[in-house]
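[job 4471] stage=fold_predict status=RUNNING
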Amino acid sequence: MTEDLGREAADPLCLPHEEAVRLLRDAPWRRLAVMGDSFAQGLGGPSEGYADIPWPERIAGALGAGRPDFQYLNTGVMGKRTRQVRAEQLDQVLAFRPDLVNVAVGGNDLFDAEPDLDAVEADLDAVYAALRAQGADIFVFTVTNVFDTIPELAEFRHRVDALNERIRAVAGRHQAVLIEMWDHPVRLRPALMSTDGIHFAMEGHAALAAEIVKALSRRLSQAGAESQVR
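[job 4471] inference complete, writing structure tokens
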């Protein structure tokens, strides 16, 4: 039986696959890597009326459409902290020689009684520097503010806000594409979260993927405009 994806098709926060492919049609990237924790891994439960496709596979599908030479690597592992991602995943990603990378990590560091965000930022800086030295473009997203609708997570609000500030700082220093998800309207959706209460369900994955595609498309347009000026 064909899956009913009517809700996703009618969702203004989502992009049809065909539109995502169109927006990234002229993208130069042929080797996508995603690294980090469970958010990089793409964990999340189903959402009624939405394709059961995590956000990394949505991005890979849009970039790889019609490109037989496209390759995709995902090293994300649930529970990993930033120092572990640097130590255990960076060399593998560098060996893959990606030209576009997402780094999704930091949330697990917040479970410490006193999170060491200076260390998180230093590890992120080292990861980004190594990727940029090899010529890769980087995109990253901030963690979404779900705390107004999920009060049981409220104790993490200030920690997540502080982590986002570190993510923004590192992204700015390394000219990464930054996708702002903190105040994204999807945060108010009652069915946003999976049953584990931590990860987006597919409704959230679809909205996140749409924002990533639009941000990458804007980067392409800016690069094209700058090349014309030169």
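[job 4471] summary: The two ends are 54 Å apart (CA to CA).
[job 4471] exit 0
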